Amino acid sequence: MKKPFLLLVFAILLFSCTEKTIQTQYPNIILILSDDQGWGDLSYHGNTNLSTPNIDELAKTGVTFDRFYVCPVCSPTRAELLTGRYHVRSGVYSTSAGGERLDLDETTIAEVFKKAGYKTAAYGKWHNGMQAPYHPNSRGFDDFYGFCSGHWGNYYSPMLEHNGEIVKGNGFIIDNLTQHGLDFITNNKANPFFLYLPFNTPHSPMQAPEKFWNKYKNKNLQMFHRDTTREDVLFTKAALAMCENIDWNVGRIANKIKELGLADNTIVLYLSDNGPNSFRWNDGMKGKKGSTDEGGVRSPMIIKWKGTLPAGKEITTIAAGIDLLPTLTDLAGLDNQTDKELDGVSLKPLLLKENPDWDERIIFTHWRGKTSLRSQKFRLDDKNHLYNMETDPGQYSDVAAKFPGIYDELILEKVKWETEVVSELNQNANRPFTIGHPSLTFTQIPARDGIAYGNIKRSNKFPNSTFYTNWVNTNDSITFNAEVLTSGVYQVELFYTCPEKDIGSTVQLQFNQSVFEFKITEAFDSPLKNDKDIYPRMEGYVKEFKRVNLGTVNLQKGNGLLTLKATNIPGSQVMDFRLLLFKKL
């Protein structure tokens, strides 16, 4: 009797140990994405204006891709990294006002790894939808800290969110986001984890910690944009100071991996979301952020997996952001588990083999009606000019007449891709902003997503972190195209400012048959935060807003206009309005 029992126990223990061994074999993944950092904004690419020793070390000990392509701007690149598919397939057509949202029938890389047992987190700039089910917590990330809009107005202890709840940041934003990443790594060192760090610099506003800016404010630069008349040196210095801050934080991550003994089982990736956000040194490439030319879409790309991927290898084969999902699932030994066909391919053969069998391919770039194609040797730009990128990387000479066969072939490829792929882009500006999805307790309805009527003005033409002001008339209103997904009682909080002399306005909040009235009874007058910028910003300045609990409202499931309208204004204005926060009770 004892022998069969002991054999059974031994078999159970052996099975458990085997399962544990298999589980711990999954590599951890840390994906670091910078924002508006050009290919040339790194010292390992030859820019002597700055020093990025930690990213340089990552490149020396990892694998670099010399020709790696992303999108011209932020939200499309993020969509492609998350899905492995061209962004035009996934409903992303803008960088604000709802056009940045990733279609709900897309599967994200976080969902794939979470399904495989990974712990998942994202800390930083999401930019693919704010309200659940577009929110990162609804797209496979267990933990999210940062902001969901495209740009943020202040980088020093700003208003952020943690899993939907509004919180206050702690110090300079990149340092703060990195600290959350370090804590996540430490807390999950015994589990496989997927950590996404979408940093938001050197995107404007141009703010950098003093110790980094001090290095640059009196520095004489040595390397410049190919057309020096287009470069603003002050902006360049600010961007490079911000890049050095990123590098310092990459060093913090590398040190934590080493300290915890995770280096042999952790894949680290580093890239940017588009070209540089100004004309500055970029190895003579044409174009910057927003352009479909080489300089607008060529990104640094490093991947390191100590002991598995060869150190110091450089890959000259073209690759793209759409390749990351299939590559990482392949390296981890996972089925990508997506329902849709991927546009990206696994780069694993390029990473591990010296001379792999590799099919020639074309990488497409599309933004605001402009399409550019990149083959291994040529670029066909949005105006159908053909460039030999081996002999003319700066795109100076159109060689269509010299290569008529290749030119005709690429023209046909462009027409075919625009017909079959771009045609999938549904620029549905009428998609409502959702309230009360069960995957998230809180729903933000910010000024960004509203439409103002009457005298009300937006604080800046770039809406992402704006507020509404000049609300002076009872005929003025703010509306949101909304959809309540779950009927019930919601707690409503308001973020606003109002000087003492103007308190007392009565405001009505209405959604279909639900009407809720509140009064502005407390003064809070905050100045604009305009003392930290190194360079004058394009975006509007922000300020602190008072948070007040308005009470509860009963909302019924359905579509409609969520409307704010004042019924009584005893002073000169109602308030400056930032956002409403709904909590399902």
Task: Provide a descriptive summary of the structure in words.
By secondary structure, the chain is of the alpha+beta class. The chain folds into three domains: about 70-365, Alkaline Phosphatase, subunit A (3-Layer(aba) Sandwich); about 375-420, no CATH class; about 435-585, Sandwich (Jelly Rolls), CATH 2.60.120.260. The protein has eleven helices and 29 strands. The strands form six sheets. A ten-stranded mixed beta sheet has the order 7-6-5-4-8-1-9-11-2-12, sandwiched between helices.
Protein topology:
Blueprint: H1 2-25, E1 28-35, H2 53-61, E2 63-65, E3 68-69, H3 74-83, H4 109-115, E4 119-125, E5 143-147, E6 159-162, E7 165-168, H5 173-187, E8 193-202, H6 210-216, H7 233-259, E9 266-272, H8 294-297, E10 298-299, E11 301-304, E12 313-315, E13 319-320, H9 324-332, H10 348-352, E14 363-367, E15 370-374, E16 378-380, E17 386-388, H11 404-420, E18 433-435, E19 442-446, E20 451-453, E21 457-458, E22 468-469, E23 477-484, E24 488-497, E25 506-511, E26 514-519, E27 546-555, E28 558-568, E29 576-584
Parallel strand pairs: 1-8, 1-9, 2-12, 3-13, 4-5, 4-8, 18-23
Antiparallel strand pairs: 2-11, 3-10, 5-6, 6-7, 9-11, 14-15, 15-16, 16-17, 19-29, 20-23, 21-22, 23-28, 24-27, 24-29, 25-26, 25-28
Helix pairs in contact: 5-7, 6-7
Domain Sulfatase N-terminal: 27-333
Signal peptide: 1-21
Protein name: Arylsulfatase
